Amino acid sequence: MNLKQLSELLGLSQTTVSRALNGYPEVNEATRERVLQAVKETGYRPNKAAQRLATGKAGSIGLVMPTAPGHQSDVHFGEFLAGLGEEAVRHDFHFVIMPADPDDEVAALRRLAISGNVDALFVAYMRGHDPRLPMLKSLSMPYVVHGRSFGSEPDYPFLDIDNEGAFYDATRLLLQLGHTRFALMNGPMHLDFAIRRKNGVIAALAERGLALDEDCISHALMTDEQGLLAMEHFLQLPERPTAILCASTVLALGAIRAVNQAGLRLGEDISLIAHDDVLPLLKPENFSVPLTTTRSSLRAAGVRIAQRLIGTVKQAGPFPEQELWKTELIVRASTGPAPQQL
């Protein structure tokens, strides 16, 4: 079925049907619902080329994918993309992904923006003083940032979680359990979320007159191998930490392997809290010792960013310019009272 046949079936002009499908605000809700129901019943699919000519819109969200020899992919990003895609499918939007060398992201984003192939841009893995922000602000194209850029004025559209608050609350719980020797297993030190999570730990410890020793901080890619290596290092320190904060359940997977290999008991000799991104293959409640976590869904964040981008393109707003989501602290068996000091 083509647009002409669909419009004849509905008794509406082709222009009205097209505008209803593309979310134009001047089409009333009853007509839009009627058109959408007919689309569902007939299996009509709009011709993308014709739709683009009629609306000037590509129906696409653009993102740059850093890639290079030795550059590792990230399971967390995959879960976020699943949410972004889930919402894009609902609106018949596409992704345009431009691979680029990690050192060429600014130029790659600009090329993508001026290509005419996308209506909006999404960026992630924000860094302190992120060099992509000035370029994004110079464009006349909608964009949303997942995260924030530490040290930069927050005058851009973003969705982020309260990373500092999450790790402040997690540290406070461990302090209440009597722990005084802490270690932090964090993501790469240049990334915004890692900066804020470290600051949250430091702030909570400072309230009790404690400090986070540099030997007790690990910055690395969030893989189980890095979690294993970091925990092995912490366990070899003269004063072994009893409270561990992990930036991801993936890191926690390796950390727990090291704890088990050392013959220690999680939740008794060592307490551990991980940031849980509700990863489908790493459910914290299914660990041999269920993990205490700070919870926030990456998939839900992906859905929300897609809603904002697509809604802005379709002029279906208004949408909030900035959103800061709180995390949940879910207490399970991996945290317990500090062991008695010998």
Question: What features would you describe in this structure?
Answer:
This protein has helices at residues 3-10, 14-21, 29-42, 48-55, 75-90, 105-114, 132-138, 163-176, 192-207, 224-235, 249-261, 298-313, and strands at 60-66, 94-100, 120-123, 143-146, 158-161, 182-186, 217-219, 243-246, 271-276, 292-295, 322-325, 328-330. 42% of the residues lie in helices and 16% in strands. The chain is α/β, with parallel strands linked by helices. The chain has a six-stranded parallel sheet, sandwiched between helices. A six-stranded mixed sheet has the order 7-6-8-9-10-12, sandwiched between helices. It has three domains: 3-46, lambda repressor-like DNA-binding domains (434 Repressor (Amino-terminal Domain)), CATH 1.10.260; 60-161 and 298-322, Response regulator (Rossmann fold), CATH 3.40.50.2300; 163-297, Response regulator (Rossmann fold). Helix 5 (75-90) crosses helix 12, helix 8 (163-176) packs parallel to helix 9 and helix 10 (224-235) packs across helix 11 (249-261). It is built from twelve helices and twelve strands. The mean pLDDT is 91. The longest helix is centred in the N-terminal third of the chain and has 16 residues, at 75-90. It is elongated, with a radius of gyration of 24 Å. This is Transcriptional regulator, LacI family. It is an enzyme of class 5 (isomerase).
